[in-house]
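The protein record reproduced below.
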Amino acid sequence: MSIVYAVDVAIRTPVHDTELPDRVARAVENLFPEADLTWGDGELRGEAHGLATFAEQLREQAILDVARETLLENREGATTTFRLKKAAAFEGVVNFAVGTVDELGEIEVELTVHDPSFEAYVDHVAPPTEDGEPLT
């Protein structure tokens, strides 16, 4: 029996005059192909109800520990936020942004878990590891 998660994912990234909108969209779609994208007010927005492709990429890149730490440290209640580098996302690579926002902006992601619990969903997306291998 598989667990059904009820989550909302909101994605936002600025689109500057110096950027090609199709490339910005591709960056987002590479990590979040499940997202429905819309354009408006100089930015690209997306909505999704899961992080399946993103979670697969975390495993492929073997960055579950970093992802887990990021999801947990930015948590407020049932919601967490994180930022990703656009250039890396364009190549299909997850690269968490830290510190100062880069001049073109970053992909901002807000994840809200409704059911079953925030902790369970984080365990699903970025499970704890031992020697780099997921425990679940």
